[in-house]
Amino acid sequence: MAGTEDSNEIEITLDDLNNSEVSDIVNKMEEAKKLTMVREVGSAAVANSNSNSGAIAILTLTGGGLAGGVLAFLVQKAVFGGGSLDDASSTVINLLFTFILAFVIGMVVSITDAASTRVASKIGIAAGIALPTSVVSGLAIGALANSFYSAIMTNLYNTANERIGNGESEEAVLSWIRNSTHLPRGVAWLMVGMAAGLTVGVASRSLKRTGLCVGGGAVGGFLGGFIFDFIPTSLEWGAQLLGIGITGLFVGLSMALLEQAARTQWIEIIAGGMAGKQFILYKTDIQIGSSTQADITLIKDPAIAPVHARIFAQGGRNYIESLDPSRPCSINGRVETRMPLEDSMDITIGATVIRFREKAGKAQAVGGVGRLT
């Protein structure tokens, strides 16, 4: 290219266009276009991503609940199997039993949930919060469950003695007692599930999610306790393993299902080192980056800055903003430093592609502390 002496016009010759440097730049631009064009688009892509990320989140908590139930069974066998508590009162035994269930299931689900972020520091923080929470909630709610169940059983046995005294057969009365304990046991274990859910919710540092986990834990605990009452006692230790394991599974599953049903805004990672992960948004301002200090930490991508971008609510709309002008985000193929978000928009941050999801009619994120699924 050469400029004339008498004007400011720029002349571009064929030799300039055929220059090897120009060809290299054109080739690189064409390659960059392919990166965004080869991704699956359309409703099928959205449905597949939504299904996969939601299923992974459900399996994570369900697996954590099942593992917590099995571990709780092993712990209670170790505690009660040595004979040291043979002379303990039924109140002490029941209280210790419910505490073990609430403590172990709550801790394991909390740690499993945090481990899904694959960030060691976040796991440590969650465990540090979950430990004292599970101790307090396990003892307090366990005592409440024991008090409730003991009162119900005392009333049942008093009524049973009266019925036997009135001439009813012992077999008929025992059958009545067995049928009458299903609901009280379910309610008592409901409280145990609530304690486990409280541990998971508080560890995630989200008020809204704490409510969801307590509700899910209550449902799971009730189902587990109710079913446990129907497992044949002839299975001996197998009956306890099955019952406690099922309870843990239901606690984790119920939490996950309730959370998925109640989510209003979330992010799905559809490409990159953490593809398949889902992050539910519970804050009006979410930082995204490679640092553990970010609300959403994206690992395995050296192109992402420590705090790369943020998603925030303003004026009833959600926006994404690049925090480093030299590394802007790409939204649906357009390079922008700030842009309003809509459901199913794809955001490229470094080499990672995330998809913003929002339920219809939910234009603003719920306030509170962020939670990472």
Q: Structural class of the helix and strand makeup?
A: alpha+beta
Mean pLDDT: 83
Largest sheet: 6 strands, antiparallel
N-to-C SSE string, H for helix and E for strand: EEHHHHHHHHHEEEEEEEEEEE
What is the CA-CA span between the terminal residues? 55 Å
Helix content: 55-70%
Number of helices: 9
Number of separate strands: 13
Low-confidence stretches: 1-5, 32-50, 364-373
Give me the oligomer status: single chain
Strand sequence of the main sheet, in spatial order?
4-3-13-12-9-10
The proportion of residues in beta strands is 5-15%
Shape: elongated
Q: For the CA atoms, what is the radius of gyration?
A: 29 Å
Structural summary, described in words:
- The protein is α+β, with helices and mostly antiparallel strands and about 375 residues long.
- It contains nine helices and 13 strands.
- The strands form three sheets. It has a six-stranded antiparallel beta sheet, with helices on one face.
- α3 runs antiparallel to α4 (about 90-115), α5 packs antiparallel against α6 and α8 packs antiparallel against α9 (about 235-260).
- The two termini are about 55 Å apart.
Write a brief caption for the model.
This protein is an alpha+beta fold. Helices cover 57% and strands 14% of the residues. The strands form three sheets. A six-stranded antiparallel beta sheet has the order 4-3-13-12-9-10, with helices on one face. Strands 6-5-7-8-11 form a five-stranded mixed beta sheet, with no helix packed on it.
